[in-house]
Input
Amino acid sequence: MPYPQFDRTRLAVHPLRERENKVCIERDQVPPGTAPGPLSARTAAAVLETAQRLRQARSEGRPVILAFGAHAIKNGLGPVLIRLIEAGWLQHLATNGAGIIHDWEFAFLGQSSEDVRGNTARGRFGLWQETGFHLNLALLLGAYDGLGYGESIGRLIHDDRHLVPGRDELLDAIRAAPDSPEAAEHAAAAADLLAVLERHTVPRGLIEVPHAWKRFSVQAAAYRLGVPFTAHPMIGHDIIYTHPLNHVAAVGRTAQRDFLSFADSVSRLSGGVYLSVGSAVMSPMIFEKSLSMSQNLALQAGQSIRDHFIVVVDLAESRWDWSTGEPPVESPDYYLRYCKTFSRMGGTMRYVSADNRDFLLALSGELGVNGEG
Output
């Protein structure tokens, strides 16, 4: 017998503009060229070494991948990340579901970051119509069009619209399922989309969604420039799962594409640079699986992924010298997952205890990325 399920259609969902937010992107943005806060000697040395490795990687055509937690967006660093993309320093960006949401809310509303404690007590946390409706619809449409998670949201912000197919088009796609495995996958995404559209009476055709602050959107910039921006969510972790329009099959289809896109970038990481900034769980977990898969294929071809440079940035202090290997299980540092995992990934790893703003601003300055492009 199936377990009972919560009925999201009974929820009172509120207009996003009723929400009080802690961060206003115009006020709290961090422009490129902003001076970082004081850095320790160890952090300053790590910044110089990282900049040197980035220059070497790019001169040899090797990729630089940046994986980051949502705070890099919430802290107003979008303009800095955009300039790093525009200047050609980043060939892949990856974040979690919350990073996607903050970036979209800044582009749409110019604000983000609600009072979690207060809104949970009022039964309002995460229950915001525009965020839930537009992001879930974008993922459903992206799954139907064969896009990834980050790409789907980037397209929405860049194009300022949804383009919802009609019922007949979706039925034609469903009927084509037996034609090929690709058609069957497309049919499944069409069936998901059709079920949601009809269950919630979503209008068909063009739905305009202006993004007055899209200049601050990292996703939109990556989409515009053709740079992969992938999302790596976990089911139930983000506020879009509270909205009745949420359909996790679409999340899975788009997130699978993003994971495989991320793994494809990792497969070319020999001699390249991987930056893991403020991501204690998502970044190490997706990296270790991607590197293992990539090594599998490389070894089959008589090669290997090596000489990569990994920089891990977080606020927690570590007393262990990770260049000597990992600490014993009795050491608290053993349980710094983002250090332990990356120390096992070959190449050279550096751990930097620093605020993500200070590290990225110092690195950008060292690379000469200042002001507008």
Residues 11-160+209-366 form a domain with the Rossmann fold fold (CATH 3.40.50.10690). The chain has one domain: 11-160+209-366. The chain has a mean pLDDT of 95.
